[in-house]
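[step 3/7] fold_predict: job queued, chain A
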Amino acid sequence: MKKLEKNTQTAVNLMKSFAGETQASMRYAYYAKEARKEKLIQIANIFEETSRNEAEHAKRFYKFLNADLMDETIEITSSFPVHLGDTKSNLLAAAGGENEEHSDMYPEFARIAREEGYAEIADVFIEVGEVEEAHEKRFLKLHENLATGYLFKKDEVVLWKCNNCGYIHEGVEAPIVCPACDHPQGYFEVFVETY
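[step 4/7] structure written:
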């Protein structure tokens, strides 16, 4: 790969991406705590997983920077969202951030990286953007399920798993209280074996 030069827009965009992914990771960790407080365990787990995903994106961008620009300082000007509300509003805020990344920011960063001769970096911007699109879809679906009452209720019989003890329940609705461990409905999620 071509040596990354400090005075390129790609170096600046990598640092912006590192900063953005790092703060998104922390924001999702905060959102997970709120969801857990609201006893929405599946959503808390998904926020925690997404937080780890964002940390890995940040690490990938930082590795590009560190490979050629170790001990350099890269100045950036960026703006980041401020939002910490209830889980329903946090899901919408998260989806909005993911949308901006995959529809605007990363495609533009990829275009610039390609123009500057950094094809590998451009490809990573595109691939990370695809992950962000999946994150957006997941957050929107969870928001829809929460808003419409379908987080713990379905139109057909499904399997529900308690995330505390592993109890499996078959029905159109998750139990109000787990009969095995006495944890509330918020610990249940639709159970799908895909392995």
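[step 5/7] annotate
The domain at 153-190 is CATH 2.20.28.10 (Rubrerythrin, domain 2).
The mean pLDDT is 97.
exit 0
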